[in-house]
Design a protein that fits this description.
mainly alpha, 2 domains, 8 helices, elongated
Length: 210
């Protein structure tokens, strides 16, 4: 019973939102499949056009890269069920077209590439790019809170208490931080030259695709 409910839920997740009203009476996976089959049999051409339009209109928006790609794959699976498989090159084109402006440099780099980048490899690189951006933002936020809550003298004193060998002479020991953007030691991410340099992030990501 639970397995059937899980399968029914998965099938419904692949259905276009504009068609979900046709599945209100579907209780089991078999019901969902039968309803979908009858819909496609009644007007396969119109259904395919609707799904393809939804695919090409899809935007990443507030979705994460993983959720955005999952939506593309689900719609692609629905198209394939209707008898029109979607090629990997078209999925890549759809994915790139729906990315927000902060990915423009990456989109341009992939678009002018002579070699077709495998869809999954591009997805993995985009997820890593997104994660790097999130880590940089979190590092800035955490450091801002640390500076706000901890006076510099107290911070220096706490460091000296942990590392007494460096606390008694001259300017004293200073904790060595490392930039999470360019990995330079002694530099914070919010002061990094490359913080808003999209070409820098994109070049790192493109190296992963080669």
């Amino acid at each position: 019973m639970k397995q059937d409910q899980f399968l029914a839920s998965w099938l419904l997740s692949t259905i276009s939102s504009s068609l979900l009203t046709s599945f209100t009476d579907a209780k089991t996976a078999c019901d969902v499949w039968t309803t979908a089959t009858s819909l496609f049999a009644a007007d396969t051409g119109t259904t395919q056009s609707r799904i393809r339009h939804e695919l090409h209109s899809l935007k990443e928006g507030m979705l994460s890269i993983k959720d955005y790609v999952s939506r593309i794959k689900n719609l692609g699976a629905l198209l394939e069920t209707s008898g029109t498989p979607i090629l990997e090159a078209e999925k890549t084109e759809i994915m790139l077209a729906g990315l927000p402006p902060e990915f423009d440099t990456i989109v341009s780099s992939v678009s002018v590439s002579f070699d077709l980048v495998p869809f999954q490899k591009l997805v993995d690189a985009l997820v890593e790019y997104e994660n790097r951006q999130l880590r940089a933002v979190q590092e800035v936020y955490l450091h801002a809170n640390l500076v706000e809550r901890t006076p510099s003298q107290n911070l220096e004193g706490s460091v000296r208490s942990v590392c007494p060998l460096f606390g008694g002479h001259g300017r004293g020991f200073r904790p060595r931080v490392q930039c999470q953007i360019c990995n330079r030691v002694g530099q914070l991410a919010q002061k990094c030259y490359y913080r808003f340099n999209r070409e820098f992030d994109a070049s790192l990501m493109m190296n992963q695709l080669q």
